Amino acid sequence: MTPEAAYAYLPDDWTRICKEAGLPAFRARQIVQGLYRDRIASWEALTTLPGAIRTEFAGRYPLTALREVARTPSSTDGVTKLLLEAADGERIETVWIPADGRITQCISSQVGCDMHCVFCASGQLGCVRSLTAAEIVAEVMTAAHTMGALPNNIVVMGMGEPFMNYDAVIRALRVLNCQQGLNIGARHITLSTCGIVPGISRLAQEGVQFELSVSLHAPNDALRDRLMPVNRRWPIAELLAACDAYTAATGRIITYEYTLVKDFNDSPTHARELIRLLQGRRARVNLIPLSPVAEFDGETPSNAACLTFLDLLLRSGIHTTLRRSRGKQADAACGQLRLRKLKESADGQS
Ligand code: SF4
Fold first, then answer.
1. Ligand 1 mean position to 195 CA, how many Å?
2. What is the pLDDT of the chain when averaged over all its residues?
3. Ligand 1 centre from 123 Cα, in Å?
């Protein structure tokens, strides 16, 4: 492994690095404690290490810093969206969602996204670059610093498609999950994909217990093609086959996200079609009434339509929840805050 930023390494990596540097194993433990328990802001602050080692490691394994450049706090529900800037000036979003005494942090995996789902601000931007593993971990470390607490749950549902940045995302999640690190349980870490079938198949072989959430959003290929270009590459039958294989390999139940769009996919007929797709599968459904975004002319369905859809799924025996929309005030649809800031700077220049 060529040297990377410090947050990319697992405790075993530090043991090996210390051994190669002629240091005893307890130095590796001191480093991991310093990084994740004490959350040091610089190698200089890790005073348990000899000064020469601090200087050497600061040069070889820099601590990734993300700078907070904007914050959109929500006045009513406590959701806070942070816009963070990487060393090269690229900006990503992370969302802090407190609920029921627990904190969920939604993190990004890429700057922008190439998947072009029509209702998503990130999808309008295209992918500028993928984040490194250290930058993904740094989203959590930076938010912990600025928000003054660590999250209990991580959801990789921010900007980007995690399976288009597979290696870095999985490494970062392993760092967040490891016991000597932040010790966030695997079942409190959710990966969300728009339906990258090879990524689902690969994750099935990882030997980890991360939760998997799949954005379905439509009960047939004709409708899904219109919302999510990825469906033309991996249509619903192929996607569900990969999900079944994932469940068989891991025993994990998959959550299917379904955004309800008025007069598009929210009728009882659509609900019955969805039931036919998922009945007999180990599946949960999360219904999300569309939050209007400027980039997509779909409308939020009525409360009655949402409840009818929910009721039909529940009656069929499919475990289903209807999600409250959190963070509307915080530009909480993914990519919204970055998009707004980009537009503001463009307007400022024109
Ligand atoms: S919804 Fe997710 S996968 Fe689709 S464009 Fe947005 S960030 Fe990308």
1. 10
2. 90
3. 5
Beta strands in 149-298 (DSSP E): 153-156, 189-193, 211-215, 254-260, 283-289
Domain edges within the chain = 6-60, 67-349
Report strand pairing: 67-73 vs 80-85: antiparallel
Atom of ligand 1 nearest to the CA of 120: 6
- Per the listing, tokens 């996919």 go with 265
pTM of the model: 0.91
Which amino acid is it at 312? Answer: L
pLDDT tens, residue by residue, 108-148 = 999 999 999 888 877 777 899 999 999 999 999 999 999 98
Backbone angles phi, psi at 257, to 5 degrees: -90, 135
Q: How far is CA 258 from CA 45, 225, 245, 274, 285, in A?
A: 46, 14, 21, 10, 7
Minimum-distance ligand 1 atom for the alpha carbon of 158: 7
Provide CATH code, domain 6-60.
Answer: 1.10.150.530
**Position 348 pLDDT exceeds 80:** no
Contacts of 287 (CB under 8 A, 6+ apart): 258, 260, 306, 309, 310, 313, 320, 321, 322, 323
Which residues have a catalytic role annotated?
93, 334
Task: Confirm or reject CATH 3.20.20.70 for domain 67-349, answering yes or no.
Answer: yes
Residue 207: exposure state from Cβ atoms within 10 A (0-12, 13-18, ≥19)? exposed
Whether residue 76 has pLDDT greater than 80? no
CB 275 within 8 A of CB 269: no
